[in-house]
């Protein structure tokens, strides 16, 4: 959710002096950054700030959202879900400069921890920052820059930290993601294409904390219970950076508009081909070739990566890799008898996608509707006319 180049600061900003004995001199707070304009930053970011009380006190930010671009096979590991993220430490002034540069709002919640709770938190962070432990297996929903922070406080405070479990509004993981990527329609479509049915279940209030904004709300509603006495976890909230929100303008070059335009175009060309006695195979090569390639991506993410959210992805019903075999058949074996059977499969799988959607087995992007219509249009046309026209 945020990224920094690893570098010269990591050694300089070690935990020297951050001992439990000095915990009472540190103010502990949660930092929450507004979403940015790029996909990687569109969900916001969270970090822990430790500010040493005193005129020359250190001011450090502990960030679980960093990774090393110099990692061997970086992009391959990122694509397959094998890239390790890490805990890093940066000075607060450097941290805030970046968010000021990108005009991203930043808020702080100062936490009402006693000395013992600070001791345990510092011990945990110290242990997590050890070279052999600072790297961790990233998971967008269950092990990210926000959940690692929540878990750190859970470990440090145990049963004294009480999260509010009252359900404010039932939302699935996909609903939660949509709240942040709707201004990025192509990213929204891509996410709906890549992520499977496993994210279409309601998230608990605790699980919603994978998103920094929801974790900020959870901290605001959490309490600390000591000796039967309850007090709010957050004792002070302050705005560090604030910028006016820009009104996003929806571009006409979004998936819904583009795909409906293709429906009109393909329908017109199909009608023209029917009247002229032509199959217009170029349309099928383009359509089934494109969705076949998407099917390879869906299959790769499902079966060959460690991403927990890309399994049981029923987009594979319409974006099926076998469509590439159909393209080959139309070009090299146009009279093969199996083509008709495969076209029946295409129509059945497309209808099955709609049924999965209707009965709530998986939620698909609304921009998918015109694509499904295109598949039904061309599969029907080929099935009934392949042997009648040239």
Characterization of this structure:
- There is one protein chain.
- With 390 residues, the protein is α+β, with helices and mostly antiparallel strands.
- The protein folds into two domains: 9-168 and 205-241, no CATH class; 255-385, no CATH class.
- 44% of the residues lie in helices and 15% in strands.
- It contains 13 helices and ten strands.
- It has helices at 9-12, 74-80, 92-101, 115-129, 147-157, 173-181, 185-194, 212-221, 255-276, 281-303, 323-332, 338-358, 368-385; strands at residues 26-33, 45-52, 59-66, 84-91, 106-111, 135-137, 161-162, 223-226, 229-232, 234-241.
- The strands form two sheets. The chain has a seven-stranded antiparallel sheet with strand order 6-4-3-2-1-5-10. A three-stranded antiparallel sheet has the order 7-8-9.
- The chain starts with 8 loop residues before the first helix and ends in a 5-residue tail after the last helix.
Spans of at least 5 consecutive residues whose pLDDT stays below 50 are: 2-17
**Topology order in helix (H) and strand (E) letters:** HEEEHEHEHEHEHHHEEEHHHHH
Distance between the ends: 53 Å
Q: Number of helix segments?
A: 13
SS-based class: alpha+beta
> What percent of residues adopt helix (DSSP H or I)?
40-55%
Largest sheet: 7 strands, antiparallel
Global outline: elongated
The gyration radius over C-alpha positions equals: 26 Å
Number of individual domains:
2
The amount of beta strand, in percent, is 15-25%
Mean pLDDT: 89
Q: For the largest sheet, list the strands in their spatial order.
A: 6-4-3-2-1-5-10
Beta strands, count: 10
